[in-house]
């Protein structure tokens, strides 16, 4: 425009506006990334859960030999990056060997289970067992069981038989919560966590869970939580008072407790 209006040469016109002549003559080359962009978007739409690694391997399987750096540059430019989830860091778990305690309330075991009602709505149960006589202390049933609800359940059990010296748990979010840690510190209860992926380090509650699932959760079709709670209460009473346990010399948990010395290991008595 400046050149045609004022009759200047190309060189003088570029010098007047401070523009390099090479820039003036520059014509952008047509991009060759179009096929990569199109294919990446198609694959990402088909499999939105897959990240760059999976998508790049799929490009290779389709016979494309594009360099991975070039594909990753385009992948990032399209903002297809998936947020990287940090791995939850757990402290070193070194639980003591699984042994039968010498008195009640020395060690309780707790764990969660899940199942579904007839309408496919899922519910959870929080199970607590005294390792000494395998007595089922509580089975709390609800759609949601946050840490405060767990603490209330443990307090309800302790109101009848005292607090335990130790509580053996897995590494679930409710178990490693601050709420439970504060409760344990307040009542002098030691929390002992098993190693991740080692459920048999909490073997007493795992065996209890199996019995509960076979006799109740897998045996009945439930329409509501009230039905689950009713059947669970009936089964728990039978489990503690009528069902003989081979590990207890074919006695029930309540009978076995009566045959032992009346020693109670509980922080509430300290």
Describe this structure in words.
The protein has 270 residues and is α/β, with parallel strands linked by helices. Helices cover 42% and strands 13% of the residues. The longest helix has 17 residues, at 225-241. The termini are far apart.
What is the strand tally?
5
- Strand proportion, as a percent range, falls in 5-15%
Overall, the morphology is: elongated
Task: Going across the biggest sheet, name each strand in turn.
Answer: 3-2-1-4-5
Number of helices: 11
Summed up:
This protein is α/β, with parallel strands linked by helices. 42% of the residues lie in helices and 13% in strands.
Features:
alpha/beta; 5 strands; 42% helix; 270 residues; elongated; 11 helices; 5-stranded mixed sheet
Record the SSE blueprint:
Elements: H1 2-6, H2 10-17, H3 21-24, H4 34-46, H5 52-61, H6 68-77, E1 107-116, E2 122-130, E3 135-142, H7 147-161, E4 166-169, H8 178-186, E5 190-193, H9 203-217, H10 225-241, H11 253-259
Parallel strand pairs: 1-4, 4-5
Antiparallel strand pairs: 1-2, 2-3
Helix pairs in contact: 9-10
